[in-house]
Amino acid sequence: MARAAVTELRRFRRHAAALCAIAAVLSLVTLTTLNARRSHHAEPAPRHLPYPLLDLPLEVAGSQYSPLAWSDIAGWKEDDHLAAFQAFRSSCKPITVQQVPPANAPPAVSKALGTSLREPCEAARNAKIADADKARAFFEAHFVPVEISRLGEGAGFVTGYYEPVIEGSRTPTDVYNVPVYRRPSNLFVRGYSQDAPDLPNKGPVYRKIGRRKLVPYYDRAEIEDGAIAGRGLEICWLKSQTDLLFSQIQGSARVKLSDGSTIRINYDAHNGYPYTPVGRILIDRGIIPKEEMSMQRIREWMEQNPDGAKELRRQNRAYVFFRVVHLSDQDEAVGAQGVPLTPGRSIAVDKTLHVYGTPFFIEGELPIESAQAKTPFHRLMIAQDTGSAITGPARADLYFGAGADAGKVSGRLKHNMRFVMLVPRSLDPLARGRKMPLPDARPSETIAKLFPQTDPLADQLKDRGQAKDGKAEATPQVASAAPTDPKPAIPAPQRKAAATTPVPPPATVAQATDPATPTAAIPLPAPRPRIDDGHWHHRYLRRYYRDR
């Protein structure tokens, strides 16, 4: 009997050991399956916040651009790159002497290129280039071409300017009776001292009355009538207001005196009023056809109509004050960057967007040889100047030199052209774009079905029974407060309490949207749907804890 009991006990132990082994194998298989499922449906690791600070692609306010290949630029190989390189080197002098801000300092300029021209300028200063091919290789090695235009437009716009050569006198006479004024001492710009060397070329300008009161500065009519006369501000005297007007439009002039000497004057400040083109007024009034408009036609009409010229001139309330620059007759005018301009290579750009020294390749057709000519113009230009009328990312004023011939050419330029900006390779938008982080992964298909992304405003209009045209539909829809999910994800105690609470009748849209209806009558949103992953062990554990 005892021997049978021992035998039965041994048999039970063997069966128990076998069952334990089978259970261990099954548990291992189950864990492996679960890990495989989890790895299959594993979501990507969340991205750490804040996102790392990466270099963004090139950003020029109000512009659109697209990178190009050098072969995509018409006339690039045929241009005289040596002349452009020499103009670029002259712009590099003030760029290389600028102090480099510390690494932890906030950016001093918000312009697209910032201080990136320093590297190409250092290379240009050390390079020994004496022919056009080496100059072209230099630009191709240190820059990338980017076609740029104003947002929504396909091309840029160019005009021309020059340095007038006019007659004048150091003292007033019966012939020379139009004063050229320097900047008045009572001219005030917010944020600048009154003796600041450089003032903005746009924006409000004031004059002080007493110690604190500020009023807008005198306009052209008031200044021509003598508002600032007799204060010792006269630099020299000219023959006519027309000569002064065109000198102010160009921003500089050479005044030939009777003794054979020359006074060189440059833009210094303005009176705060926006520039109004007198040519546009003549076109709007039907006096000069648009296709015939040029500075020469404006001058001819003003000389033939003195009274009309006075009224037309005063429509432009802007007024420019000058300073004397010490240059010889052989020197070219000095641009806003502080370097001498190069005829045919220097341009004026919007200084709020662009950095002085930036190369621009401008291509198209211009009336260079005559008013009706369509001369191919494919030339690399350097931004070295600015102007109050030059606004936008693809807007330039081409400088053609001094004298009457340059004035004839520049006076008839008002044309659309293609702009290609040369960007230093350190700001290559393609290279920077490759480093941009990708957006977060989209939710899984299951989550997307459970929580569809809809337009709240469209759903609200639909619930109110409104059609797309704003008219209400004939049958208003009813918003039900009852949950639509047969298995709401509500804990058991709350579910029992909800079962004993009477369900209110469904409220119509009129009741829900009526201001007089109590807030309690507005139906609550349906509860979130229950998400069941379907794994047997989850269901078993929930049943186990519930039955305990």
Helices and strands in order, then pairings?
Elements: H1 2-40, E1 63-67, H2 81-96, H3 118-126, H4 132-142, E2 143-150, E3 156-163, E4 165-169, E5 178-181, E6 187-188, E7 206-209, E8 213-216, H5 220-224, E9 234-238, H6 241-250, E10 252-257, E11 262-270, H7 278-284, H8 295-304, H9 306-313, E12 320-325, E13 346-348, E14 359-366, E15 375-385, E16 395-402, H10 404-411, E17 414-424, H11 429-433, H12 445-450, H13 456-463, E18 478-479, H14 492-500, E19 507-508, H15 509-513, H16 536-547
Parallel strand pairs: 3-16, 4-10, 13-15
Antiparallel strand pairs: 1-2, 2-17, 3-17, 4-9, 5-9, 6-7, 7-8, 10-11, 11-12, 13-16, 14-15, 14-17, 18-19
Number of strands: 19
Strand order within the widest beta sheet: 3-16-13-15-14-17
Shape: elongated
Please summarize the sheet with the most strands: 6 strands, mixed, barrel
Radius of gyration: 39 Å
Helix content class: 25-40%
| First-to-last CA distance | 42 Å
Note the total helix count: 16
Q: What amount of the residues lies in strands?
A: 15-25%
Oligomeric form of this entry? single chain
In round numbers, the mean pLDDT is 80
